[in-house]
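PT: before anyone asks, these are the final sequences, not the draft ones from last week. 618 residues across everything. Please model them as a single complex and drop the result in this thread when it's through.
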Amino acid sequence: MLDFLIAQTLNGLVYSMLLFLLALGLSLTFGMLRVINLAHGAFYLMGAYFGLTAWNLTHSFWAAIIVATAGAAIVGMLLERSWLQRFYVRNELDQVILTFGFALVFADIMKMLWGKDIHSIPVPPLLSGAVQIAGTYFPAYRLILVGVGVALFVATWLAIERTRTGALIRASVADRVMVSGLGFNIRLLFTYVFGFGTAIAGLAGVLGAPITGIYPGLDFEVLITTLIVVVVGGLGNISGAFWAALLIGLAETYGKALYPAAASFIIFGLMAAVLLIRAWGRDEEDVE
Amino acid sequence: MTVADVIVQRRSKPFVALRLWSVLGLMIAAFAAAPFLGMPQFVQALVIEILVFSLLALSLNVLLGYTGLVSFGHAAFFGIAGYAVGIIAIHISTDILVTFPLAVLVAALCAVPIGWLSIRLSGFYFLMITFAFAQMVFVAAFRWKPVTGGSDGLIVPGATLFGAPILGSRESFYFFVLAVFTVCAALLYAVVTSRFGRTLVGIRESTPRMRALGYNVRRYKLAAFVVGATFGGVAGVLNSLFNLFIAPESAHWTQSALVLVMVLIGGAGYFVGPIIGATIVLLLQHWLSSYTEYWGLVLGILFIVLITGAREGIAGLVMQGWSHLRGKGP
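LR: through. Structure below.
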């Protein structure tokens, strides 16, 4: 029983970290650009496919990571520059529809390029072993993933709270008109932040590939769970996203292991409950 | 020119409304006559499907177009009523006078608590909570195997009337759907042009102002939610009785998204918008699926082009062109 609990907890933590990497980009993009990017899941799958192609060519996991991250960043920045930028003045619904349109387009283009089969990237030999901690063996790769997630959380948090660029980002979240009035090139900053978000999603895709596999439809699966994480954590709130990713990731993993019929019921119920608790007692629903 | 202007303008110009209704009336008469003039069976099936989804899209438009509530879970009520028909027909009675009203009532009753909770949120959060509730309905349909048949779906027994089987032939069902659609569309038109409907438009345009005028905004939103769900339920009943089968997918979020697409492509806030949207989307789907499997790509491009170029959908484009032709364009 204890072994089962430990194994499920590790699985849950790994899943949580992948969710956090996705939620980080989505939440940051929303906080700053005020855009809910429904194409975010597509960047996860895109990263995984880019990584797959790089791995097939070079058989190097590190090349796969670099290609996936850079590829997702470039596509993301192109999308932001070419299309999204002129939608910043539009309302929420327009942006949701636009990015959903791109999600559909990306999904089919990936299906054309990489087919419908289920692929996977093997764990690099260096990390394929198991580590013994307190008498129990843990797969090294999964432990590393948890470490990467926590490290990225801390690094992003420090970057936003402690650096000059971070201060600029925080200022833009608060009042972007004022920041651009002070002479900062906020358009470029937006492009970089968006690109950072999609890059992290692509990174999550390639890192998650040995665990989740790579197949069409995965983009919408991860998008839905990420949206739940971001909503539970509070849109634009990065530490909120971290703790929400832990909550949702663990809840779904335990739920699937203990009571499979209700696993997705639990996370949708959690989201509905959090939304309602936040809205309760308010007279007006216009306030977010 | 905003949507509200068009609605106001239409009210002050009875000729436009008259012309709209004579056109719709002629179309319905033509559809009613078509089977006698040799409309093939597969076209009848397509028209049935278009009418069912037009009704579903019309019902969503009460929320989306008139009240400004973007529901991403409208298929829940389509699915609930669809399952209710099957379950009632299996366990209680297959008589259409029992199944039809009871299933619609079930959808409406489910909409009361779901709506009561959901309307406490607005904007993107409203979208997410309706989505969450709809996915719960989907999961229930998928997992509650003894009642819903799970992923296999549920075979719906054919409808009867006082013990005799009815609507067995394609043709009889065609007339039945046409009649139900006409009645429901007329009812919905009466709803959105009534005092109640104009209050909903007021809430969409400025909620704080309506609140300041003393309207109980939440009660109106809840009423709009229940009205939308009820007519969505009617569409669900028609769908189940036509296919004699219902599967969890009918409550899935992709179904909700498809209806949302229909309303937006046709033009949210215009009464005929959802009908135009449902027709275009279904015709495209049928036509393209014989050429390509990349239906999502086409839909996505349609989305991007429309939202970039024509925010008020095809009905909006037509109205703009119309007022442009008459020399009083915006």
